[in-house]
Write a structure and sequence with these properties.
Layout (H helix, E strand, L loop, with lengths): L1 H8 L6 E5 L4 H13 L3 E6 L12 E4 L5 H8 L4 E3 L10 H12 L3 E3 L7 H8 L1
Parallel strand pairs: 1-2, 1-4, 2-3, 4-5
C-alpha cells in the first residue's frame, strides 16, 4: 500500500504523533506504518466510549471532541497530527481539531482529505 510508505517518509523528523480514528481503516494504516519505523511515539485520540482495538505500543488519550480544552490538552507536546475522520463525522470537527492543534502548538497537521470534498478541506486550512 503506497499511502503508509509515503507517509512514513515525510514526517520522520517528528517523534510524537497523534492520530484520530486510529483503529479505523485509514488511521490504522498510518498507525501501522509509524510503528514499523520504531521511531515514533503514537497517540490515538479517542472518544471515551470507543471500542476499537489499538495495536500494542499505541498510547490512548480519551478526548471529548466537543470540548476544545480537552482537545488542546490531549495535543500538547505532540509534533504531528494526522486527521482521519469518517464521512459521518460532524462537518465542523476538522476545523475544531486544527484549531485545537494550533492552540496546543502542534507544528504540523495532515488534514483529512480521505472522506471530505477537497473544497471543504481547503476552506478549513486556509
Amino acid at each position: 500500500m503506497l499511502l503508509p510508505v509515503l507517509f512514513v517518509d515525510i514526517p520522520r523528523r517528528y517523534r510524537t504523533d497523534s492520530i484520530t480514528q486510529a483503529s479505523g481503516r485509514i488511521g490504522g494504516a498510518f498507525v501501522e506504518a509509524l510503528l514499523k519505523t520504531k521511531e515514533h511515539i503514537v497517540t490515538a485520540l479517542r472518544h471515551p466510549t470507543s471500542k476499537g482495538e489499538l495495536p500494542h505500543g499505541v498510547h490512548s488519550v480519551a478526548v471529548d471532541y466537543d470540548d476544545e480544552a480537552s482537545l488542546v490538552k490531549a495535543l500538547e507536546g505532540q509534533q504531528f497530527l494526522v486527521i482521519t475522520l469518517s464521512a459521518s463525522a460532524p462537518s465542523d470537527l476538522h476545523s475544531r481539531l486544527t484549531s485545537a492543534a494550533a492552540k496546543a502548538g502542534v507544528p504540523y497537521v495532515m488534514p483529512n482529505i480521505y472522506s471530505k470534498p477537497l473544497r471543504t478541506v481547503i476552506t478549513f486550512i486556509g
